[in-house]
Amino acid sequence: MEKMFCLGVMLGMVGGALIVANSYKARTLVKKSQSEVMEKVNEMMDEKLQAMSGKSEGESGKAKK
User: Fold this and answer.
1) Contact assessment for residue 26 and residue 20, using Cβ atoms and an 8 Å cutoff
2) What is the DSSP track for the chain?
3) Long-range contacts of range 44-53, CB-CB < 8 Å, 24 or more positions apart?
4) Among 13, 35, 17, which residue's Cα sits nearest to residue 26?
5) Distance CA 50, CA 44 (A)
6) Per residue in 1-52, pLDDT tens?
7) Is residue 27 within 8 Å of residue 20, measured between CB atoms?
8) HSE on the CB side for 54, CA within 13 Å?
C-alpha cells in the first residue's frame, strides 16, 4: 500500500513537471508564483532584521546607561 502511494506521488510529480515544461502558460504561472513568494520572503526577512537590529540597539543603549 505504501509503495503504491509513493509510486503514485512520483508519477504525479513527473507528470506535473512534464506539463509545466511543455506548457507556456503553466511555466509563466510557476515563474510568477516563485517571484511572488521570493518577494514576500524578502519582505519578512527585512522586517525580522529590522526588529533584531532595533532590539540590539535598545540593549546596547541600556548597557551604556
Assistant:
1) yes
2) -HHHHHHHHHHHHHHHHHHHHH-HHHHHHHHHHHHHHHHHHHHHHHHHHHHHHHHHHHHHHHHH-
3) none
4) 17
5) 10
6) 789 999 999 999 999 888 878 888 888 888 999 999 999 999 999 999 998 8
7) yes
8) 6
